[in-house]
Amino acid sequence: MILPSELVRARRRKGQITPIYAGEDTLSLCRTLISVFESNVGGRRVVLKEALDHCEDLGYNYKLVRGLSAVLEDRSAFQAQAAVNPSEARMTVFDAAGGSVIATDGMRTKIMVKVASRLGISIDDLENSLYADLWDEHVLSEFEASEPMALLKEYNFALTSTILTKARRIELNYEGSDRVLEDLANALGVCKNQMRGDLSIMTIETRPSKRGKHADRMERILTILLSHDGWRLEANVVQPSSGKTYTLSLSKEKDGRIVAPGERSRKLEGKQPEVEGKRLDDVLLIEELAAHLGVTETDAKRMATAEGRYIDISGVLVTKRKLEEIRGALANTPDMSLSNVVEVLKKLGCRRPLQILEALGYSVDWTADRDQSKVHKIRKR
Description:
Blueprint (H helix, E strand, L loop, with lengths): L9 E4 L2 E4 L7 H13 L5 H11 L6 H13 L1 E4 L6 H12 L7 H15 L3 H7 L9 E5 L4 H17 L2 E9 L3 H10 E8 L2 E8 L4 H15 L6 E7 L6 E7 H4 L7 H6 L5 E2 L2 E2 L3 E3 H8 L3 H9 L4 E4 L2 E4 H12 L6 H10 L5 H7 L2 E4 L8 E4 L4
Antiparallel strand pairs: 1-2, 3-4, 5-7, 5-8, 6-7, 8-9, 10-11, 12-14, 13-14, 15-16
Helix pairs in contact: 1-2, 1-3, 1-7, 3-7, 4-5, 5-6, 7-9, 8-9, 12-13
């Protein structure tokens, strides 16, 4: 994974940049953070965040605490847990209120009873569903725990990968040859490779690319490099704020013991978001993709969106081409009754039409006869 730029810990001195790696003295912190995540499985994200905030009071650098937490969050899956689609629940409650001011708890309860009955759920389920799609209300549904030492190494790997995303020139040395590594290097920029006996010397002049794609390739290159004997790396890293260039120097002898990709990075190496050798549909659900690939929903989303092909809409992955097709279909649909619009979207492969509508800036004027409810555009997206 790549850390947020504000969490990068590195020293810059005399033209050299040195990552401030987590050492074995932070293993106690690693154990604590892992325990916090484990104890919050099934709980809301906001509660987890509060517990992690308390960990910043343990005397460690806050960037280290947040960086380790980010690695653990990458091992987690969060999801909205709702009996009905939250956007549908909110729109139905708004419609039932009829624009009137809800002045008492009794008035609110009356409306909630009416809406719960209309949606066929309990009042408690309606309460829990109303804002379940908000970021803070997402529930930690899965967490892939790691050993403290493995977390420490994975954090150091993430820190290294993040710094390398700013590299303009990279030289890799490693024993033997590696065609996959060469292909990745060629995709990253202009690559020159030569052999000196059993030693491969690869020089990469990186070229501009989409941030996600560039970072993904850099991670994969580093993952493969670290699997080779006798590896060394030297890179010219540009600091964006000043434009100054610093040299990053790493080697197996010096850094190999405390820098390593997580097991998930190794498993995902080379795996593409494909189903039975065919490209995925233009519209799919993250949870179904995750189940098919045997990875967490977080990994499934990352894999599907890494190349910029899919856009995530509240758990629904849609290609840019399909999204434009949907926009065009909605703009040219004369009958904007909810029943007709849902039918149009379903024919286009949308299995969660209301989420798509809300994301594209449409609202529903709900009526007692749900099928006759009207869809209208409320804002331009």
